[in-house]
Write a structure and sequence with these properties.
By secondary structure, the chain is α+β, with helices and mostly antiparallel strands. The protein contains 4 helices and 4 strands, in the order E-H-E-E-H-E-H-H.
């Protein structure tokens, strides 16, 4: 078995697609993403902004276009690992409504790397991984709060 000292250890890598109104960006999402990167919680691999115009045409927006709808994400210019390609752009465009834009983000949860290393050192292997959708989590928590206390 290879030691974790000989093999680079990574945390889980996630992909998220966020949809926004083209005219409604506030900058808060970009600021929070920058904070997560700067504090070492995540490592950003890719960030693309895709607009779907009212007529259904799709374009990848330049992050550094002054005054452009993706400009709030200019801090992330150059975040391109190659994990996002034309197929992901098409899928993102299919998932959003006309007149909206999508931010595609691929990031590593680097906070988890020490845990992954410890698990590997103990002979652990990842056999399954799944993201539980936030609405499902919220519904489960709400039902717990609404349930009568167990006596």
């Amino acid at each position: 078995m290879t030691s974790t000292h000989e093999t680079e250890v990574h945390g889980p890598v996630d992909f998220v697609l966020l949809e926004f109104p083209i005219a409604g960006l506030t900058g808060r999402a970009s600021q929070e993403l920058a904070r997560l990167v700067e504090e070492g919680v995540i490592r950003l691999f890719d960030l693309l902004v895709v607009a779907k115009n009212e007529d259904g045409t799709v374009e990848v927006l330049e992050l550094t276009d002054p005054g452009g709808p993706a400009n709030e994400f200019s801090y992330f210019e150059g975040a391109q690992s190659g994990l996002l390609g034309q197929e992901e752009i098409v899928e993102a465009a299919d998932a959003i409504l006309p007149g909206r834009l999508a931010v595609l983000v691929v990031y590593e949860n680097i906070w988890a790397a020490p845990f992954v290393a410890a698990a590997r050192d103990g002979g652990g292997e990842l056999v399954a991984s799944m993201r539980i959708p936030a609405p499902d989590v919220m519904a489960a928590l709400e039902s717990l709060e609404a349930a009568p206390p167990v006596s």
